[in-house]
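Chapter review. Work through the record for ABC transporter permease before attempting the end-of-chapter questions.
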Amino acid sequence: MSSTVEAADLRLTGPAVRRRGLRAAGTILGVAVLVLIASYAVFVPMLAGTDEKLTDFSSARLPPSAAHPFGTDHAGRDLFIRLASGLRVSLLIAVLCALASMGLGMLIGAVSAALGGRTDRIVMRVVDGINAVPHLLLGVVIVAMFRGSVTAIIASIALTHWTQVARIVRAEVLSLRSREYVEAAYLLGSTRREVLRRHFLPGTLAQGVVATVMLLPHAIWHESTLSFLGLGLSPDQASLGTLLKEAQSEVMLGGWWALVFPALLLLVTTLAVAACGNGILSRTEGRQ
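Structure tokens for ABC transporter permease:
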């Protein structure tokens, strides 16, 4: 009888073990790819020794070769170097947007759950109202008022993505409110502000970090979309969005490489960040 039960347990745990192994392998692969992408974005412009904005019309629209691995654009600029510079800008903006969203979402979500009652209901209705508006549409409205401003791009993405973080943090704080050490802190005379600072915010930090990592792909795509629509960075400032916008006319003239390499890098970067986020999320859920 016991051997039958053990065999059943092995059959039940076998698929779970395989899924865990595949998830771990995917996370490792995502981290490795992300390190390569970040190294490419950081070190290639530094080691190139040339200005990526320098034009050379005699070398315009050259296909990929040993001298120019990603080809050249309409102004003769090396796309291998220019794409690295654009990727660095897009990643920097995405990280700043995610951090701003995390800070705003954690603060609002924690305060809302800590105060509870009418305040919590009002905050949640505001969150529902923001979520009801398409994020891209709201981002376009914000960026259109300050076209070409990096600050406006960061603000537009942060102000439309903090709600997801706020919901996650609020749910975590509602769970923490019933913990014994929190109730003991109130009994000992701690104020809501002290409990928020000492227990709620530190207790939700892990969830906030996970939410921030999961926001990175959204931030990358939103920045690229805004720049592609001509509402983000100026055309002379390389980013994944501006390079994809330039590729529109290049493809019509046979310059397929101007579209393929930025689009492929955008897709690979997004998948790598998503794999890292899923790995962090699974580890967090496993500990819980």
